[in-house]
Amino acid sequence: MSTQLNAPVSRENIEALSQGRGEPGWLTDIRKEAAALAGTLEWPRPEKMRIDRWKLTAFGVDRHPELAGDLSQLPEEIRASLPQDAANLVVQRNSGAAYRNLAEEWKAKGVIFTDLETAVREHGDLVKKHLFSVVKADEDKLTALHAALWNGGVFVYVPKNVEVEVPLQAVLYLDDAEAAFAPHVLIVADANSRVSYVDRVLASGAGRSAVAVHHAVVEVVAGPGALVRFASIHHLPESVTDLSIRRATLANDARIEWIIGDLNNGNTLSVTKSDLKGNGSTSDSKLITIGTQSQNMSITTHAVHYGLSSESEMETRAVMRDSATAIINGVTKIEKGATKANGHQTERVLMLSPKARGDANPILLIDEDDVKADHAASVGRVNEEQLYYLMSRGIDREVAERLIIRGFLEPIVSEVPIEAVREELERMIEGKLNA
Amino acid sequence: MATRFTVKGLRASIEGKEILKGIDIDIRGGEIHAIMGPNGTGKSTLASALMGHPKYEVTEGEVLLDGENLLEMEVDERARAGLFLAMQYPSEITGVTNADFLRSAINARRGEGNEISLIKFIRQLEAKMKELEMNPEFAHRYLNEGFSGGEKKRNEILQMMMLEPKIVILDEVDSGLDIDALKIVASGVNSMRSEDRGFLIITHYQRLLNYIKPDFVHVMMQGRIVKSGGPELAERLEAEGYDWIKEELGIVDETVGQA
Ligand SMILES: Nc1ncnc2c1ncn2[C@@H]1O[C@H](COP(=O)(O)OP(=O)(O)OP(=O)(O)O)[C@@H](O)[C@H]1O
Ligand SMILES: [Mg+2]
After folding, report:
1. Contact: A395, B163; criterion CB under 8 Å
2. Which of A288, A385, A393 is the mutation pick for testing B, counting most B CBs within 10 A?
3. Which end of chain A has the least Cβ crowding within 10 Å, N or C?
4. Is the Cα dihedral A342, A193, A184, A177 positive or negative?
5. Residue A244 has pLDDT above 60, yes or no
6. What is the pLDDT of residues A8-63, one digit of tens each?
7. Which positions are tagged coiled coil (chain B) (predicted)?
8. Which ligand has an atom closest to residue B43 CA?
9. How far apart are CA A47 and CA A363, in angstroms?
10. Mutate to test the interface with A, among B74, B78, B96 (most CBs of A within 10 A)
11. Do B76 and A410 make contact, defined as CB atoms within 8 angstroms?
């Protein structure tokens, strides 16, 4: 039985679910309240895309996996996507954690890296303080439903002054067509800490043909002077709708680097936002996407400047094929008082098919005079001059086109911090371009 | 078979405007031909039309490379048949490294199943870059992106050396080069001189021809070759300019297509 998304999620169901997992009362209350809100709030309304017309009913049922002692207990298919050394890794399978590991070295320094459900039990106060502090449950139907229904998830905590030198990795995947799949990622980086987090959201086995909604929220709390690098690649099948909200709040001199690969084959809502609260805080977001078949995507990157001298960079590159549609929004908002703020954004869309649609919407909202803000947006086809140049060296048209398309994405692909993940990303890109 | 490149009565237009008005050139392996001529007289158009640039429409004439009709081929096929054009304004391509690009180009020539080994490729590339005094880091930079004018020209010559074509057209490869770079590029070209390779060098300046001695010099005006001679012709042009030719031929406006 799947939960009907458009109907209110019942408080009773949610309460039973939460208590069944042995969750503390404060969390059960959050979920219950959110469930009630979900019945009254509206779906978000991104520019030129009616996501409320998407098929948003298949929430799935709770399917918590067994926790694996080592990766060999997980199905072979997903193991290909997991790091060999199995270190510093959290795996979510369907509705819960299937594996978690953090090297002793980091534990000894006070770093926490585990699934969010476990963190609720083991580090309740810390989680309680930050959960839904960045993305509020009552923003819209999506955040409310997510607050009511989230499962599994990831929790990262890095204490003051600790620099985690290895990337922390998570693989979140669906391999049960019935399962609820709704991870919540919470990253808390204390003052002057550093951390890189890399995740992938995938489907394997029966998950490949699942009719499902993946709804996910990422919250990043970056303390003064903290640096968080967040890379995420989503590669879900055509029948899965991906609704992903990512948001960071930045204290003085904090920095977030987003590297996002939206490579789903189904409908996608992707909103990545930085709240530059602190003076001198900086945000850099890089996003790539490839639209294929008839998928619809609403892709937004967003920076809101509150802090003095805060800086944001946003760069989105989209390749559009077949009859896919992508509405690419870049929003730079500078609040009154954010003097010397500097926001720069670029959206570039490469159109490979006359039936595809790719809209680039740069939006600058400036309420302060003493700032710099600019944008560049372009929508175009493969450049004929470049094609001619490559072909003039003997490279045939198809290969030349492919080089140009891959090259278009490469400056962002090359930013992914783990080589194996980068290679997998390249394979996904190849797959989407060949499909 | 010795290389033979023949252009006969070539006419070409751009956007309906005729720029090349009947060009004849005959290059044999081992020969170096230079084309000189004032700005806007059709020199780059000739180079582009020979390479098959999509904007130029060939309306008449014949281009044969070792008996094969180049005009019936796509741009990439012409290249694989042995034609190479070092362009006056090479494209910049983000995200494609110089090394990846060159390897794709070499492999395109060699064909599937016969790809060059990575080690061999790198060894060749490093050797040629050293010859051209290029910083090895240029192998990993994106193709021509952010290269200075001179660096782009050197990169064109690097490609020529790696691809070993039969017919090489150099379109103003000397422009933007300082004197040291000019010598390096010239010695790169000279190292490629051989009995089975022909060159067509487009230039404005005698100074390049001091380093690369041409066998024939052609002067282009109004989309035609209006005068041909030996190396002494280039020297006279350097000393006296083009006016004497215009007078001799009764040409008032030497440009083409400025309707
Ligand atoms: N893409 C184009 N569109 C319109 N006109 C063109 C185009 N390419 C060339 N032409 C015109 O054709 C004429 C010849 O140009 P071409 O570039 O062949 O001259 P050139 O002899 O190489 O000059 P230069 O010495 O300045 O390089 C010029 O009048 C030029 O404006
Ligand atoms: Mg020219």
Report:
1. no
2. A393
3. N
4. positive
5. yes
6. 478 888 999 999 999 999 999 999 999 999 999 999 999 999 999 998 988 999 99
7. none
8. 1
9. 11
10. B96
11. no
B122 and chain A in contact, CB less than 8 A: no
Mean pLDDT of B165-190: 94
Q: Which CATH number fits domain B4-89+166-249: 3.40.50.2300, 3.40.50.300, 2.60.120.620, 3.30.1330.60?
A: 3.40.50.300
Residue of chain B nearest A391, judged by CA positions: B76
Of B93, B108, B109, the CB nearest to A386: B93
ipTM of the predicted structure? 0.97
In contact, A170 and A92? CB cutoff 8 Å: yes
Q: Are strands A89-93 and A168-174 parallel, antiparallel or unpaired?
A: parallel
Please report whether residue A121 resides in a domain.
yes
Which residue type, as a one-letter code, is found at position B168?
Answer: V
Ligand 1, atom nearest to B55 Cα: 1
The answer on pLDDT for A7 being more than 60 is no
CB contact under 8 A, B74 and A403: no
Residues of B in Cβ contact (< 8 Å) with A384 = 54
Cβ within 8 Å, pair B91-A383 = yes
Residue A17 within any structural domain of the chain: yes
Which residue is closest in CA terms to ligand 1's atom 8?
B45
Q: What is the distance between the alpha carbons of residues B157 and B116, in angstroms, rounded to a whole number?
A: 20
Per-residue pLDDT of A258-273, as tens digits, reads: 999 999 999 999 999 9
**B114 CB near a chain A CB, below 8 Å?**
no
pLDDT for residue A8: 46
Pocket probe for ligand 1: among B43, B203, B255, the residue whose CB has the most ligand atoms within 8 Å is: B43
User: Whole-model pTM above 0.95?
Assistant: no
Full domain range(s) for residue A32: 11-434
| pLDDT above 50 (res A6) | no
Residues of A with CB under 8 A from a CB of B: 383-386, 388-397, 399-400, 403-404, 406-411
Residue A18 to residues A60, A213, B57, B98: CA-CA distances in angstroms? 16, 20, 72, 56
Name the percent of chain B lying above pLDDT 90: 95
DSSP string, B100-161: HHHHHHHHHHH-TT-PPPHHHHHHHHHHHHHHTT--GGGGTSEETTT--HHHHHHHHHHHHH
- Tokens 């909202």, residue? A365
pLDDT digits (tens, 9 = 90+) for B103-140: 999 999 999 999 999 999 999 999 999 999 999 999 99
How far apart CA A114 and CA A125 sit, in angstroms, is 15
**Are B91 and A403 within 8 A, CB to CB?**
no
